[in-house]
Amino acid sequence: MINIPKGTKDVLPSDVYKWHYFEKCASEIADAYNLREIRTPVFEHTELFLRGVGDTTDVVNKEMYTFEDKGGRSITLKPEGTAGVARSFIENGMYNEAMPCKMYYFSPVFRYERPQAGRLREHHQFGVEIYGGKDADTDAEVILIAYDMLTKLGLSVELNINSMGCKNCKAEYNKALKQYLGGHLNEMCDTCKVRFEKNPLRILDCKEEGCRKITADAPAITDYLCDDCRGHFNDLKRYLNVAGLDYKVNPHIVRGLDYYTRTVFEFITTSLGAQGTVCGGGRYDGLIETLGGNPTCGVGFGMGIERILLLAEAVGADIPKAKPVKLYIASMGDAAFDKAFELATALRRKGVKAEIDHMRRSVKAQFKYADKIQAEYVAVIGDDELNSNEVQLKKMSDGSTESIKIDEIVKYFIEGER
Ligand SMILES: [Zn+2]
Ligand SMILES: [Zn+2]
Known about the structure:
Layout: H1 16-32, E1 36-37, E2 43-45, H2 46-52, H3 58-62, E3 65-68, E4 74-77, H4 82-91, E5 101-110, E6 122-131, H5 136-152, E7 157-163, H6 167-182, H7 190-198, H8 209-215, H9 227-242, E8 248-249, E9 261-269, E10 276-283, H10 287-290, E11 298-304, H11 305-314, E12 327-331, H12 334-349, E13 354-356, H13 363-372, E14 377-381, H14 383-388, E15 390-395, E16 401-405, H15 409-415
Parallel strand pairs: 1-5, 7-8, 12-13, 12-14
Antiparallel strand pairs: 2-4, 3-4, 5-6, 6-11, 7-9, 9-10, 10-11, 14-15, 15-16
Helix pairs in contact: 1-5, 5-9
The protein binds zinc ion (2 copies).
């Protein structure tokens, strides 16, 4: 008996309708905003994430699935969705096409984390990337896509926004932050002591109680923004107001990845009383250049599909199930089975979901099965029916029956739009 690897999960046939619904809603919303889907490989050269995500982040330091392939290359299973899309954007010269370049993706992402409730080593993300729009209307648009998606799935969410500024204001802020944190170095966790030297901003992200107490009173980056960045942040607020979207400015949102500039945002769910981030994203104007492309700005987000589906279910979101079998054709005897096989094939080729007995069961057992799969109609064919070319069609929801010619069954289901 071989078990599923720790931290991974099957999506079973009985549950997959939820994923289909998620993907359908996400694609429709993305399409309305004029985004197109992109699909990039599950693994990339490790270097892409070292350069793109940043080598002081937890994701890159501790959580990547990195291995050497048989050609001696260092390969990493993607720990997030943005870097691969950025690599593809550059490699395929998409900046020569119509800009802005607006894309979305569904992708598995891999992080070697200690498995715990709701944290998987492989999970799936719906993400959005827009390249080329430098002003805050693009940021607002990305935020709106996430909002539309989350609310479509029945979640109540609260939008938190912040600005990380540009290189210049980040440097100013880093100085102020370091000065403040320097006075509390002894009270911080070991990881944060390292972060203090390498990237003090990360300390604002720390989940340790002691560190959180210290960062509660830390200076806020929004007080250190340069004129351009402040203008950009004010524009963002204006566009959100125009769209009628409430927000809260939260200077502690810095996101876990190094590439963000200016806008960062998180949606916190207020459903179920439990607070938690369900989607995060922001602007990363330096990323494309860092990865060797022409300077091109970008904004995007990622949301974990598993987590959102769990929440959607918990709040009782109305997720439509897959359509049941339209017609189950039960049969008695070989000649009748051949006829059932022929009819089912004809129906299927016209797009009508039809099923027959593949297990050679008794009629009683076939009815039981039809019940189990919730078939809408059942017809039983035996020698009598073959001789008379007549069959009783039973509507399972109310038990009513009607007589119908066997050679008119296909027409009945196609033209009747049943
Ligand atoms: Zn700035
Ligand atoms: Zn810490």
